[in-house]
């Protein structure tokens, strides 16, 4: 069966949700000013239904505790170290153990909800702020989670380099404990997102200071078990097969949630999605952690024992361009790729309509922040065909007429990859000869697209393969480069060793909160010489001025106008080709209930594992 609207008579706001109103001023300063799109997708009879993204938490009394949900993982988790790993299967487990300062309000996902941070304030003039922690969080080894530990953790991150959260903590000038549960901090400069989950300065998991104080080199840290403070504690594991956590409600304050209501939680590792889905249908799995493909969602939607959850996108998939390299250093060449990308194939065949074609680095649900048209606030495209299908001659003509860094012509085919009747020349040379690496050395051969292998990301891999086919049909020699997801972090964000990279953000807040997070020079290693993680591997710097204007503008209407201009500039420059805003699809068994749906689905938020209980 598909995801139906919740029974409002049984769902009410918790007192912790209601307390949100008392801190609205501080949240406003963090950049969460009103507006935003709503989900208006129409549910056809053969389409998995979509419900509102918010899920008020149940306050039913005397919930019987027990049960062990089985969460299916697509692959073996790699490296339980939050500072170095981007592996989603490892994060499935780490996110159950390490709490964040703030999270999404489960009843109204546009709002920021207290979690480890109970109350906060920030003055954009003095750049100083104060935080009060929620009392009652406790590490699973019995140590308290207090202000001294939190201040030490953020100072530790400020002192280290190259970790995943450097772009967050490098915005901090200082932080110190002023009491058992109080902090003071100062920022280096003003920003539109201070406390916002996912992209704010403090959007960092809190780890146990008493454990990390003994770690000399964080890059080599690989624990076999974890100390957490979020309602669960480590129980046991059989690496390659399963990992199990026990519920421990004593580590979580009741004012946050009175769960977990389950006895334990097991993460079971599968080598492929087909086996995982079969086990779900047999009743041996209760939740698919990663989003499933539309084909599988359609197959499951009529099963009485399974529920399919359909959530409209807040994030987007994209192809990043390495602008250090010829021909990606040329804006017209990057723009031309939009005419070649198979938008229609992705939307109609691979996603079966459960996606929206991409353009801006802001999903369609954020319509008030997106430009009203490609003519406003300046001319900027569109760089795609009207029907989203390849038009070989249109793409070639666009390149022939380009007025950029290079001159493009087409002539006889000489490269094995090209399937069309002509092959591109760049300034008179074959692209395979003109193509450079990060050091400017030419002769790098066909351009390549780094993709996650089809066994892990089948839809994205198929779309990437069709894109490469289209490039070769136009006469641009290209090939795919499959790289395991766990290996992409170093290859892309540290070495910047790629031409194009197929990736995506599962969830993003309103665009004015996050563009500085990865689309400015502060996140660039321009000459690719640093060993640090840089979230702007494209090397893009041309929107710094407009994004700075966005981040320092707090009046709502002016902020939206500034955001539209910045989005238009980024689209015009095409450091990334946004390919789609894909719906998130998950499947759960009917053995358990109480899953909590927020943007991105039901699996990647703390509430769902605290709230789930036996049906």
Helix/strand layout:
Blueprint: H1 15-18, H2 24-29, E1 70-73, H3 88-97, E2 102-104, E3 112-114, E4 117-123, E5 128-133, H4 147-159, H5 166-169, E6 172-179, E7 182-187, H6 209-212, E8 232-238, E9 242-247, E10 264-269, H7 273-281, E11 287-288, H8 294-300, E12 306-311, E13 316-321, H9 331-340, H10 343-350, E14 355-357, H11 392-400, E15 408-411, E16 423-426, E17 429-430, H12 431-434, E18 447-451, H13 458-474, E19 478-482, H14 485-494, E20 500-505, H15 515-518, H16 544-551, H17 556-573, E21 576-582, E22 584-589, E23 592-593, H18 606-611, E24 613-614
Parallel strand pairs: 1-10, 1-11, 18-19, 18-20
Antiparallel strand pairs: 2-3, 4-5, 5-7, 6-7, 8-9, 9-10, 12-22, 13-20, 13-21, 14-21, 15-16, 16-17, 23-24
Helix pairs in contact: 9-11, 16-17
Characterise this structure:
The chain has 615 residues and is an alpha+beta fold. It is 25% helix and 19% strand. It contains 18 helices and 24 strands. The chain has a six-stranded mixed sheet. The protein has a five-stranded mixed sheet with strand order 8-9-10-1-11, with helices on both faces. A hairpin with a 3-residue loop joins β8 (232-238) and β9. The two termini are 15 Å apart. Residues 1-52 have low confidence and may be disordered.
């Amino acid at each position: 069966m598909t995801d139906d609207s919740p029974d409002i008579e049984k769902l009410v706001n918790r007192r912790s949700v209601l307390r949100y109103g008392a801190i609205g001023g501080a949240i406003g300063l963090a950049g969460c000013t009103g507006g935003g799109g709503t989900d208006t997708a129409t549910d056809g009879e053969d389409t998995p239904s979509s419900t509102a993204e918010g899920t008020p938490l149940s306050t039913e009394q005397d919930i019987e505790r027990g049960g062990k949900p089985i969460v299916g993982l697509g692959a073996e988790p790699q490296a339980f170290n939050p500072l170095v790993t981007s592996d989603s299967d490892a994060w499935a487990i780490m996110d159950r153990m390490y709490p964040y300062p703030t999270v999404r309000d489960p009843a109204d996902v546009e709002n920021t909800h207290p979690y480890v941070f109970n109350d906060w304030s920030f003055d954009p003039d003095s750049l100083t702020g104060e935080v009060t922690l929620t009392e009652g969080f406790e590490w699973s080894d019995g140590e308290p989670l207090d202000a001294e530990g939190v201040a030490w953790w953020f100072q530790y991150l400020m002192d280290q380099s190259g970790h995943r959260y450097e772009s967050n903590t490098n915005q901090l000038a200082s932080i110190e404990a002023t009491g058992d549960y109080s902090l003071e901090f100062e920022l280096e400069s003003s920003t539109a997102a201070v406390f916002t989950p996912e992209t704010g300065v403090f959007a960092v998991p809190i780890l146990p200071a008493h454990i990390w104080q003994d770690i000399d080199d964080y890059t080599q840290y690989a624990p076999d078990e974890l100390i957490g403070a979020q309602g669960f504690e480590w129980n046991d594991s059989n690496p390659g097969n399963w990992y199990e956590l026990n519920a421990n409600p004593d580590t979580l304050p009741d004012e946050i949630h009175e769960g977990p209501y389950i006895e334990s939680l097991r993460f079971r590792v599968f080598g492929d999605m087909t086996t995982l889905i079969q086990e779900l249908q047999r009743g041996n799995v209760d939740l698919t952690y990663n989003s499933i493909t539309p084909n599988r969602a359609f197959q499951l939607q009529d099963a009485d024992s399974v529920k399919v959850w359909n959530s409209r996108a807040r994030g987007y998939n994209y192809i990043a361009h390495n602008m250090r390299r010829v021909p990606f250093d040329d804006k017209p060449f990057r723009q031309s790729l939009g005419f070649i990308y198979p938008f229609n194939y992705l939307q109609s065949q691979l996603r079966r309509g459960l996606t929206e074609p991409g353009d801006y680095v802001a999903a369609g649900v954020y319509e008030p922040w997106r430009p009203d048209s490609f003519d406003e606030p300046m001319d900027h495209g569109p760089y795609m065909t009207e029907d989203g299908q390849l038009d070989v001659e249109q793409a070639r003509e666009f390149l022939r007429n380009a007025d950029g860094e290079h001159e493009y012509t087409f002539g006889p085919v000489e490269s094995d990859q090209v399937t069309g009747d002509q092959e591109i020349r760049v300034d008179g040379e074959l692209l395979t000869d003109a193509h450079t690496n990060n050091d400017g050395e030419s002769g790098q051969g066909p351009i390549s697209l780094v993709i996650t292998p089809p066994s892990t990301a089948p839809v994205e891999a198929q779309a990437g393969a069709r894109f490469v086919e289209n490039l070769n049909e136009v006469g641009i020699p290209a090939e795919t480069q499959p790289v395991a997801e766990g290996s992409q972090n170093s290859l892309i964000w540290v070495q910047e060793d790629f031409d194009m990279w197929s990736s995506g953000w599962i969830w993003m807040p309103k665009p004015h909160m996050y563009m500085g997070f990865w689309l400015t020079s502060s996140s660039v290693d321009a000459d690719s010489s640093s060993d640090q993680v840089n979230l702007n591997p494209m090397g893009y710097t041309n929107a710094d001025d407009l994004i700075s204007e966005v981040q320092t503008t707090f009046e709502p209407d002016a902020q939206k106008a500034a955001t539209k201009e910045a989005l238009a500039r980024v689209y015009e420059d095409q450091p990334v080709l946004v390919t789609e805003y894909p719906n998130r699809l998950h499947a759960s068994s009917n053995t358990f209930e109480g899953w909590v749906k927020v943007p991105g689905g039901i699996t990647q938020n703390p509430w769902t594992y605290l709230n789930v209980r036996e049906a």
